[in-house]
Amino acid sequence: MSFRNNGLWRIGQKGWMGTMRTLFKRRYRNSLSNLLFVSFLVMFLLIFTISSIFSYSGILNILKNNAKENSLQQLKQYDYNLSIFAGEVDQASRQLVLDSELQNLIDYKNMTEIDRVLQMEKAFKDFAQMLSNYKFIDSISFYGEDGFVIRASSNSNDILYESSSKQNQFYRSEIYPVVKSKALTLTWFGGFTAQDFNIATSNTLSKEAADSRPTYYISAARSIFSNSQTGTIVINVDMTYFTDIYNHASDNRNREMYLVDGSGKIVSHSDVAKIGNQGTIPLQFLSAANGGDKFSSYEHDKKQIMSYKSSSFDWILIYEIPLSEFTKDIFTLRQIVTIMFIFSLVFAAILSKYWIRKVTMPLNRLTTVMKKMELGNLGLTLDLDVRNEFGILIVQFNKMSKSIVELLKQKETIEEEKRRIEIGALQSQINPHFFYNTLNTIKWMAIMVKADNIVESLTTLGDILHPMFKKNDLLCSIREEIEYLENYIKIMNYRYAGEIKVKISIPNDVMECQILRFLLQPLVENAIYHGLNSRNGGEIIITAEEQNHEIVLFVYDNGEGMSNMKVQEIKQILMSKGSEDSQQETGIGLMNVNRRILLHFGDPYGIQIESEQHRGTKLKVTIPKVQKS
């Protein structure tokens, strides 16, 4: 097959868009090859898209998990650094608390002027030594219970004493009552500025107060006790130094790392403008962190936010990474996947178009032949050697095409036979009427000679024959069937001299349910001829009951019964649904009834038999409950 003939040449001539337009023309829209082609492309796009989405999500999750693991290790290291720093500040505060000068200054108002000067000089000397030893300490303040305040920084030493009342705003801040309630415990605070600890008078403003840009501190406060009086020492740590402890490795400007308190307020940040503001951590995750979760990670506002609860501070370390940092790592991969997708789609479209046309060629040939047959050209066949399912279809089509001609000939024969059968059926409808009218004539002749037993027998026989040609319904009530059965028993008792006893026990509500006409009589006849015949009589019991929307009828006889081998043989025949061969061997009584039940009501219903030799037989008939409509 040449390149021009296999379809590739046409795609090259028309172009890709021209081929796609051709697919949707009305005359090609329902073509199987085009439907398969479009279906293949749709499945290809769907599978490729789903796999790309899962791959993209998987790679993104791997990057996030790796970043989460790396970030967790960093956060643990930073928390360790903060713990060491907190220990140093705690040690410095303990040295100051144990300093006797500060303990003496608690009772400042009861000291002499000379003692005050000496104690303050010693305290400022200790403060200066502490500022020299710990470069990260920006200032140290002492607040007495009576309003006496001293503050030392690298720039100045300030003193404030308001004996009448505590005028300094520190006593009205949140730090003072919290520190007093926690006794000797070192308590940390963040988000306070130099102005919050300023004690300079209005005539002597400190440098921090004059500075237009606030200087933020991380503050550590501890109480001092002496003679039932309390003082408070506050160590203010330089914010820049404190931030570098946990944020020195964050060289990416898009990433942020900061500390928030239990309410979510930022207490430490490399950007001082954000200190004191509310962080981006949602309340539900803030509650989880406060509730005991050491580490958590979540996405919020296009950021991956990780939180780590500090072991030395009642604060939470927050690390924010923009999601764009993860996606940029797979941008190149996405471009490669896109190029592969376009190339694969074009190649798959060309290859599938060629292959589908080749595979469906036998089907197209078969369709052409079938259209010719539709126009009346019967008996056409295909001569193609195809070794697949299409080959089987072609073989079967050839057989079908040859059979059609034979069937047409047979149809003429069947139609002729059908006409003959219909004529016979019409003729057979005349016979019961003739038979019934003849019985009436014989009955009147018996009446004239006063042969009462003959009259009664003929009357009963007429009552039995009457439903056969007067009523054509398939169903009748159980009551009607019992009335018909009673006439049959009456005739049988003429033969057996009244030795056949029949007991019928059926509730009135069950009596009105529908049953197949002439269903019980063959069963009773079977009991008489095969069970009671050798005994010249016996007893037959007929009962019926409703069970789970089904009618179950029982026919018992106390006759000879059957051997177990015979019972199994009959059961096997009943299970085989009464084929014609089995009926010829065993009679049509039970088999006829069982087959009628199966044909009318379906497989779950039918006859079951139980019998013991010399002890009788029991038949169980199950049919659905049907009320007369």
UniProtKB/TrEMBL annotation:
It comes from the Bacteria. It is found in: Cell membrane. InterPro entries: Bact_2-comp_sensor_kinase (IPR050640), dCache_1 (IPR033479), HAMP_dom (IPR003660), HATPase_C_sf (IPR036890), HATPase_dom (IPR003594), His_kinase_dom (IPR005467), Sig_transdc_His_kin_internal (IPR010559). Its EC number is 2.7.13.3. The lineage of its organism: Bacteria, Bacillati, Bacillota, Bacilli, Bacillales. The keyword Transferase applies. Residues 397-424 form a coiled coil. It comes from Paenibacillus phytorum. PROSITE patterns: HAMP, HIS_KIN. It catalyses: ATP + protein L-histidine = ADP + protein N-phospho-L-histidine. This is histidine kinase. It is a multi-pass membrane protein. The chain crosses the membrane at residues 336-356. Residues 357-409 form the HAMP domain. Signal peptide: none annotated.
